[in-house]
Amino acid sequence: MVTVHLPPVPGYAALAGALASAGLGVTDVVHVTEYVTAATKNDLDAARSFALRGHRVPVSRVPIEAVVGSTTPYVLGVTAHPSDGIVYLPSVHTTEGDFRDQYRWCLARLRELAGDATLVRTIDYTATATRADYPRCGRPRRDVLGSVHPAAAGILVDVPVAPGARVALDAVAASGPLRVLNPGWARYDTLTYKPAVQAGKHVFLSGFGALDPVTQEALHDGNLPAQAEHIYVSIETVLAEAGASGEHVTSLVEYVTPAAVEAYPRTKALREKHFPNAAVVSVVCSALLRPSFLLESVPTAVLP
């Protein structure tokens, strides 16, 4: 059965219609990501329960500044159809301890929830004020993660998912044979994440910014279309290691900084050229780990 990623759903009231348009029902849903602004006043727990009619699924909640091109206070990323070996996990956070303590707790909790499966991608949402502390997450990742380092992305948020939470972690796990995809970029030899991990027909990629993979220098400062082109080519370079291309990308989550919102529509045609079959969720984040980054893209691909 093929995994389905719905186009962004503008709230739980629209979920039934979105599922019906894809020929799906609520029992087909296997994971929901709630991209939520601080202005959200909805009781999402009640709205979720009503929309899913009691069907229980893992839920990730991601704090964002806004939904690109929309005034809706939140948007849903919906994954449907179970796939053999793929374990969808809820996001986790704690309010106890310092940044490193919280990061370690989140990783350990996700490992616990994954059971015998291996984490194949992590996305951390860290408080902007902790940017200088971010390198300290390397130690807990080395201590807690297994021998196969996952793909990863890191996003900064001004308003955390809960008061006192310095980090929230989202993850996907998989069982069965795993394959790391790396086009020969040596920088990943010393990092605790990889460009992508393939699990069966699924490829979970890291977050990509406009970074030279050899020199590790940020590129195209202030030029969003040029950054986007570099990102999209990098993604296709990694996918080629699995004999795949941008056509196999089924989901693309794009984190746009506030400085890039005005120029973001200029990347639409480029994105559609590289990833014609992707369900694209575009949200405004507070900032990215590299101050010059205007965009970070997190793709998922499914091979034929």
Walk me through this protein's architecture.
- The chain is 20% helix and 30% strand.
- It has 304 residues and is α+β, with helices and mostly antiparallel strands.
- It has a single domain (4-302), classed as 2-Layer Sandwich (60s Ribosomal Protein L30, Chain: A).
- The strands form 3 sheets. A 7-stranded mixed beta sheet has the order 4-15-14-17-13-12-11, covered by helices on one side. Strands 6, 7, 8, 9, 10 and 16 form a 6-stranded mixed beta sheet that branches.
- A hairpin with a 2-residue loop joins strand 12 and strand 13.
- Helix 3 packs parallel to helix 4 (138-144).
- The N and C termini lie close together (11 Å).
- It comes from Paractinoplanes atraurantiacus.
- This is Enamine deaminase RidA, house cleaning of reactive enamine intermediates, YjgF/YER057c/UK114 family.
- It holds the Pfam family Ribonuc_L-PSP.
Outline of the structure:
This protein has 304 residues and is α+β, with helices and mostly antiparallel strands. It has 6 helices and 17 strands.
Quickly list its features.
single chain; 304 residues; alpha+beta; 60s Ribosomal Protein L30, Chain: A; seven-stranded mixed β-sheet; six-stranded mixed β-sheet; 6 helices; 17 strands; 20% helix
CATH class (first level) name? Alpha Beta
Largest sheet: 7 strands, mixed
* CATH topology annotation: 60s Ribosomal Protein L30, Chain: A
Please write the string of helix (H) and strand (E) elements: EHEHEEEEEHEHEEEEEHEHEEE
Count of discrete domains: 1
CATH superfamily: RutC-like
What is the strand arrangement across the widest sheet? 4-15-14-17-13-12-11
- The rough form would be described as globular
